[in-house]
Specification:
GO molecular function: RNA-directed DNA polymerase activity
Oligomer: single chain
Organism: Araneus ventricosus
Structural class: alpha+beta
Keywords: Nucleotidyltransferase, RNA-directed DNA polymerase, Transferase
Radius of gyration: 30 Å
Pfam families: Exo_endo_phos_2, RVT_1
Protein name: Putative RNA-directed DNA polymerase from transposon X-element
Helix content: 25-40%
Length: 683
């Protein structure tokens, strides 16, 4: 369900905008300041409209529009309306759901005291949209008022949740902006509701707010089943007979694809642990119950009872395994956060993607054209490749370049979770089911890649899935971040390289202790602890402390590849392993999967590959020489692509001069290595 709330400042001369997004694709309209009187009502062929008319006073006039397929009624408010507070409450029945939309306009500031009892009287989900005209730091304002303070206090002690971020909705004629249009909903449904602010005001001084509720997005659930016995038997034959690397990956992909079936379930609200066994036994139970009732058959009734018992058994087993898995991963914060995302994705079954994408002031509706727009956007790079003469030889570390062992492959398989496969369709489970003989064959193939530095094309190909950023306009292509699905073959090989590189960096103390992230015992807490310790010491010695937070713009995408390889060589990463890494970074391709459509294939020249296992540790190598930019007395702490430089001293002039000189060096360093500092994210 999509709703749009808009303070239109007069709707008579703005009706034309209702034919374009976001109004054209929104099921529900919530408009304020329509300036309509009773005789001014207009007709809409797709909406049933409810009015609160303007009654001979400036401004006001509310409209709530619902689909023709929905039914609704105005709820009496039982309190008098005035020029400062207009409220239109509509109870709606739509697609089997009952909920309430409250349309509100309060030009002098909303007084919660007069309406609190009314808002708390409902037993069904409630949405409250409108112009509250309140300022408070909770939604990004630098001031507050008694009315807004009272409103926030009541909101925090109520069963409602504020949906807005700090994105502004109102702009004055002088250009100052603020957030006046608030979106609120019942806490019971807030996990499935999102809102974002449109970039256009459509000739008003308020921008529309678009709200999506995934509860009404009924989609079919798809389940994948694989005949593993047949798959592994055919795979063993391929591993025995095939010697060509590209052909090996392609043939195994065909084996997995031929033995995989996709079953589409009806659009019901299935629990997250529901599997194919539950589905099949439920179908058999229903089938024999119908036959037993139709033919009065005792044998069919016995089969019905048998399948009902099996269904209960599999439901109990599936649910127990699901919750046991959740319990076990709560010990790992990273895994726990991942599971929270999965639980949220289940309740929000379909990602809130837009069917219309805005490009060059035109809306594109065709899914194939949209996917091609995405692939052009994600592959675009203004970075020019400047090759550097590189010498891979020299004193090669023997550990980095020893032949790949079977034990290394087994450890890589154990550390890899069964995530979504890449374009080849081969999952991590396929590797985990291989016999020792087959694993030995895989080890031989990995060793061939390592010794020849030839990376199969399938390993360099990624499928990109655009995922919407929170609180962004989903009709705009830059409101999505790319999530890459890469080859599992490549992931295992990369893990072997990571293990060797990490061992080399730590044993040889190649990476400064202030560079944290993606290395054992160097997490974000250690980075924060160093800064906290420096602040505490400065305070205890009565020194000034100044720090600068730097954020590298599009950090991984901006990595200078030949510069990275040069830095790796300086760190002692030489021989076959650096040849493999350089080959791995070259001539990569991507496709975008969007609304069941696959885009054209595009070459990607920029930075480190998205979704690659080896990319984070290579980025650590790229930042390993950042300390060279620092003046004496200036310290730093790095986590991933976030850099914090700081200085403590009894003299502010001393600190200012040191940091200024350091920042000049930082900008020279970034310019030399083709990086950019993001001003809006740096402090």
């Amino acid at each position: 369900m999509t709703s749009v709330q808009w303070n239109c400042r007069g709707l008579k001369n703005k009706k034309i905008w209702l034919k374009v997004p976001p109004f054209s694709f929104s099921e529900f309209w919530i408009f304020q300041e329509t300036f309509f009187k009773h005789e001014d009502h207009f007709f809409c062929s797709t909406k049933t409209l409810f009015y609160l008319d303007r009654q001979d006073r400036p401004g006001v006039g509310l409209i709530t529009g619902i689909p023709k397929t929905a039914s609704g009624r105005i709820i009496p408010t039982n309190f008098s309306h005035n020029a400062n507070q207009e409220i239109l409450a509509v109870e709606i029945f739509y697609k089997g759901l009952n909920f309430i939309i409250i349309n509100l306009y309060a030009p002098q500031g909303f007084n919660i005291e007069s309406t609190k009892q009314f808002f708390d009287s409902f037993s069904v989900p409630v949405f409250i949209f409108g112009n509250f005209h309140l300022h408070h730091p909770l939604w990004g304002s630098d001031k507050s008022s008694p009315l807004s303070n009272d409103f926030v206090e009541r909101l925090q002690n109520s069963s409602f949740v504020l949906l807005n971020s700090s994105n502004t909705t109102y702009t004055t004629h002088t250009g100052s902006a603020s957030l006046l249009d608030l979106s609120i909903c019942s806490a019971s449904i807030s996990h499935g509701v999102e809102c974002y602010v449109s970039d256009s005001n459509f000739e008003s001084d308020h921008c529309p707010v678009i709200i999506t509720w995934s509860k009404l997005e009924h989609i079919s659930k798809k389940m994948k089943t694989i005949d593993w016995n047949r798959t592994m038997s055919q795979s063993a034959n391929v591993l025995t007979a095939e010697t060509n690397l590209n052909a090996l990956t392609r043939k195994i992909s065909e084996v997995v694809r031929d033995n995989t079936k996709i079953i589409t379930l009806p659009a019901n609200n299935y629990p997250p642990w529901w599997n194919l066994s539950c589905h099949n036994f439920q179908k058999l139970k229903i089938l024999f119950r119908k036959r037993a009732l139709r033919f009065i058959s005792e044998s069919d009734w016995i089969k019905h009872k048998k399948y009902a018992a099996k269904l209960r058994f599999h439901i109990k087993k599936a649910s127990r395994n699901y919750w046991d898995k959740i319990y076990n991963i709560t010990r790992n914060p990273r895994m726990f956060y991942s599971m929270l995302n999965k639980v949220y994705s289940h309740s929000n079954q379909e990602l809130n993607i837009s069917n219309l994408i805005l490009r060059n002031n035109h809306y594109i509706s065709n899914s194939t054209q949209q996917s091609n727009l995405f692939v052009d956007f994600f592959s675009d790079s203004s970075m020019k490749h400047e090759p550097i003469p590189l010498d891979y030889c020299g004193d090669c570390n023997c550990y980095l370049n020893i032949p790949i062992h079977l034990q290394e492959v087994r450890q890589a398989i154990q550390k890899t979770r069964n995530s979504t496969p890449g374009a080849d369709g081969i999952s991590a489970n396929w590797f985990k089911k291989l016999s020792i003989k087959d694993l030995t064959s895989i080890t031989s193939f990995f060793q061939e890649v390592f010794s020849t530095s030839y990376i199969p094309e399938e390993w360099k190909h990624s499928i990109i899935v655009p995922v919407p950023k929170p609180n962004k306009d989903k009709s705009k292509i830059n409101s999505y971040r790319p999530i890459a699905l890469t080859s599992v073959f490549s992931k295992f090989f990369e893990r072997i390289l990571i293990q060797r590189i990490t061992h080399h960096l730590l044993i040889g103390k190649k990476v400064p202790p202030s560079v944290n992230g993606f290395l054992p015992l160097r997490d974000n807490q250690l980075a924060v602890y160093k800064i906290h310790t420096a602040i505490t010491e400065a305070h205890s010695h009565k020194k000034y402390f100044l720090g600068i937070s730097l954020d590298i713009k599009s950090a991984h995408d901006s990595v200078y590849k030949d510069g990275l390889i040069l830095k790796c060589l300086r760190l002692g990463i030489k021989g076959n392993i650096i040849k493999v890494l350089h080959s791995f970074l070259q001539n990569r391709t991507i496709q975008v999967r969007w609304r069941n459509s696959l885009s054209k294939t595009k070459n990607v020249q920029k930075g480190l590959p998205q979704g690659s296992v080896v990319s984070p540790i290579l980025f650590v190598c790229f930042l390993s020489d950042f300390f060279e930019t620092l003046y004496v007395g200036v310290e730093y702490s790095i986590f991933a692509d976030d850099i914090f430089i700081f200085c403590a001293h009894t003299s502010l002039d001393y600190i200012s001069k040191k940091l200024q000189n350091t920042m000049e060096n930082v900008y020279k360093w970034c310019n030399y290595w083709k990086l950019d500092i993001s001003p809006e994210n740096s402090l």
